[in-house]
Amino acid sequence: PFSSSSRRKMNLKSERRGIHVDQSELLCKKGCGYYGNPAWQGFCSKCWREEYHKARQKQIQEDWELAERLQREEEEAYASSQSTQGAQSLTFSKFEEKKTNEKTRKVTTVKKFFTASSRAGAKKAEIQEAKAPSPSIHRQASIETDRVSKEFIEFIRTYQKPGQDIYKQCKLFLDTMSHKRDLSIEEQSECAQDFYQNVADRLQTRWKVPPEKVEKAMDEVEKYIMTRQYKYVFCPETTDDEKKDLAVQKRIRALHWVTPQMLCVPVSEEIPEVSDMVVKAITDIIEMDSKRVPRDKLACITKCSKHIFNAIKITKNEPASADDFLPTLIYIVLKGNPPRLQSNIQYITRFCNPSRLMTGEDGYYFTNLCCAVAFIEKLDAQSLNLSQEDFDRFMTGQTSPKKQESDSFSPDVCLGVKQMCKSLDLLSQLNERQERIVSEAKKLEKDLIDWTDGITKEVEDIVEKYPLEIKTKSQALAAIDSENVENDKLPPPLQPQVYAG
């Protein structure tokens, strides 16, 4: 609450400026009796913090609901495209329009707590907020940015004067990039790569910093720079990265039937320890999308690859080779289906410190991941040693590869799973028999049609070769016992004679 001395001081300052100040205008809008700050929309620090936390919790809840709804819609669209052959999946333009509408709808979530109550003020605020991004996003980003900035400042203090120079260069680069938002993503990538190279050369030539300390400093510079630039350069709207993500995700879903045996994967998931390694590898490759720094994304790829090598080593009881690693990595990517895979690969390629991509195990594993994605995009029947007919049937979902026999299951497997596998095998056999019967019936029908056409043609050829001519007689033949008038030379007919006994 205001004290008498503080009120007098405020009145004196206002009178010197020639401004009359109403004491009620200085109070917090919530009516708690403390000073209100115009920068906080007229709230005191305590009330503003409470309102901010409420708004932030509500914003987080709405973001979760939006993500779940978009996931459900995507799954329903995929299911409908699989069930109906003629159905069209959601195009990228419709998906982008839906996402834009959702963003526009929720941009007024936080600021509405601090706007005026009048209708005119509310309409004006809504118009301004529709053009500006959500304030909660800026506040949430500022929390992480502040944390990274503090860690970066603490780190460069150990470098003394070179650290001060690094900090100035980073601030200058961020200020420059803030005015270059209209540049293409390739031009921004070139600016970032040039900045990395200039800072490294500056530390080595001007400040004579040892190479190991230069590498460590560049890692921190990358972390500081890319944390602040992440929301502007990761999967930007000016590129087709999101369209590629959807294409790769759809492709991996269509290849869900691929088995380790088709890829010649030397990993046995029946071994509990190997199964755990496979799960950890899938978790690491999926976790890559949650990181913001390119170096952290590379670290997830490296951890995934090491789990793969351990799984191969346990299965074969010998060290794994490169020929064993790449097929297993392809299988892990197919089984995990990492989110925004192409966007993450492009982000690492564009903004990672080039020294990490050119040398070391991080660069090797990242190159193998790029090869695995390229193999998945071009995978065909020949790659899996399958016939084109079987590959097309597997891709369209008409049938699936033969499942594991029930007798080969371990004793602790549920009976329902065994019965399900038996039923699937029986259905697969019935399907094959039905397809064979249909094909043979079609063949028999074709043979009958060909036989009928052949007989008809032969008859026509014979008739054409030997035509049938019917000649009419000039006179009619007389009966045997009739009077032969025309020819007198013939003897008369015999007459019956009676003899007396």
What does this structure look like?
- The protein is mostly helical and 501 residues long.
- Among the domains are: 41-73; 146-232, Serum Albumin, Chain A, Domain 1 (Orthogonal Bundle); 240-396, VPS9 domain (Glutathione S-transferase Yfyf (Class Pi), Chain A, domain 2, Up-down Bundle); 418-449.
- The chain has 19 helices and no strands.
- The chain has helices spanning 4-16, 23-26, 45-83, 92-105, 119-131, 135-156, 161-178, 185-206, 211-233, 241-254, 260-263, 272-287, 294-316, 322-336, 341-351, 354-358, 360-377, 388-396, 415-465.
- Helix 6 packs antiparallel against helix 9 (211-233), helix 12 (272-287) packs antiparallel against helix 13 (294-316) and helix 13 (294-316) packs across helix 17.
- The chain is elongated and about 170 Å long.
- The termini are far apart.
- The model is unreliable at 85-95 and 105-140 (pLDDT under 50).
- Keywords: Acetylation, Cytoplasm, Endocytosis, Endosome, Metal-binding, Phosphoprotein, Protein transport, Transport, Ubl conjugation, Ubl conjugation pathway, Zinc, Zinc-finger.
Task: Report on the biggest sheet.
Answer: none
CATH C-level label of the domain at 240-396: Mainly Alpha
- Overall shape: elongated
Which regions have little confidence, pLDDT < 50, spanning 5+ residues?
85-95, 105-140
Structural class: mainly alpha
Strand percent estimate: under 5%
- The H/E string reads HHHHHHHHHHHHHHHHHHH
Question: Roughly what percent helix?
Answer: 55-70%
Task: Report the end-to-end length measured between terminal Cα atoms.
Answer: 176 Å
